[in-house]
Amino acid sequence: MFNDIGPMELVTLVVLAVLIFGPDKLPKLIQDVSNVIRKVRSFSESAKQDIRAELGPEFKDFEFEDLNPKTFVRKQLMDNDDLGLKEIRNSFDLRKDMEEVADAVHGRESATATTATTAANGSVNGSGGTPDLLKKREKLDPGERPPFDADAT
């Protein structure tokens, strides 16, 4: 209920309450406010129970929090997995993909690239005849132009 009130704001409210109502009337006021809050809560709980009773037994698992659109969507998508969304969500390994990209940028060979190269060429060093496009060459041959990368420009 008061998640967005900070400690300084709370202290300011307490000081204002003491100044406005005085130290004599403040305990009685706090007690009255807490009684009102208790009555409102009991009224809302009895109203929820009446609504559940009127809806019937097929709505016995109905929660009023489900009326919040975020909660409803989360419950329908996360709990009810008819479409296989959990499998799709688990198939994405963003950390592994980012590590592969970082290894490619730094010229290192990642574990998955090493496995793929070993499977394709039969060795780790890539001696199967295909050039390793991720490795930088030492120097250009005389008269040879550097490679043009349209994505980099």
UniProtKB/TrEMBL annotation:
Stored Gene3D superfamilies: 1.20.5.3310
Residue ranges with Basic and acidic residues bias: 133-153
Protein location: Cell membrane; Membrane
Membrane topology: Single-pass membrane protein
Region described as Disordered: 105-153
Pfam family, one: TatA_B_E
Keywords assigned by UniProt, alphabetized: Cell membrane, Membrane, Protein transport, Translocation, Transmembrane, Transmembrane helix, Transport
Primary site of residence: membrane
Function per UniProt: Part of the twin-arginine translocation (Tat) system that transports large folded proteins containing a characteristic twin-arginine motif in their signal peptide across membranes. Together with TatC, TatB is part of a receptor directly interacting with Tat signal peptides. TatB may form an oligomeric binding site that transiently accommodates folded Tat precursor proteins before their translocation.
Subunit-structure text: The Tat system comprises two distinct complexes: a TatABC complex, containing multiple copies of TatA, TatB and TatC subunits, and a separate TatA complex, containing only TatA subunits. Substrates initially bind to the TatABC complex, which probably triggers association of the separate TatA complex to form the active translocon.
Family: Belongs to the TatB family.
Protein name: Sec-independent protein translocase protein TatB
Name of encoding gene: tatB_2
